[in-house]
Design a protein that fits this description.
Structural class: mainly alpha
Distance between the termini: 48 Å
Order of helices and strands: HHH
Shape: elongated
Number of domains: 1
Strand content: under 5%
Length: about 120
């Protein structure tokens, strides 16, 4: 059970870092390209999408930090049932936070796609 939990936490951490890092990098690159060409964002939706990407990065980073804290709490629990339960809850809520953030991003992207179509 412990090995499965550790592997799941590692997988979640890796996926979160990759996803949030890629989204943030894309938003930063778009900002750099706009600054180099002297252009401003064409419309409000571009600005909102960039803000959402940055917020998704922040949520992903916070979730990774909480996963790490939950893992440390789990290892340091020394078999105390209350500490183990608290650590598992921390990990569970961090994973739920990642899922909610990704679903929120997908919903916002869907709305913007429907508006721009």
């Amino acid at each position: 059970m412990n090995k499965l939990l550790v592997k799941t936490a590692r997988l979640g951490t890796g996926l979160s870092v990759l996803t949030s890092g890629a989204v943030f990098a894309q938003g930063v690159q778009e900002g750099i390209n706009a600054a180099n060409t002297g252009e401003t964002p064409a419309d409000v939706t571009t600005v909102i999408q960039n803000v959402i990407r940055i917020l998704l990065f922040i949520v992903g980073a916070a979730a990774v930090i909480m996963l790490i804290i939950g893992g440390i709490r789990y290892v340091m629990s020394s078999g105390d049932q209350n500490a183990v339960a608290g650590a598992k809850n921390t990990i569970l809520y961090a994973i739920i936070g990642i899922i909610v953030a990704v679903l929120a991003y997908a919903a916002v992207q869907f709305v913007f796609d429907q508006i721009s179509a």
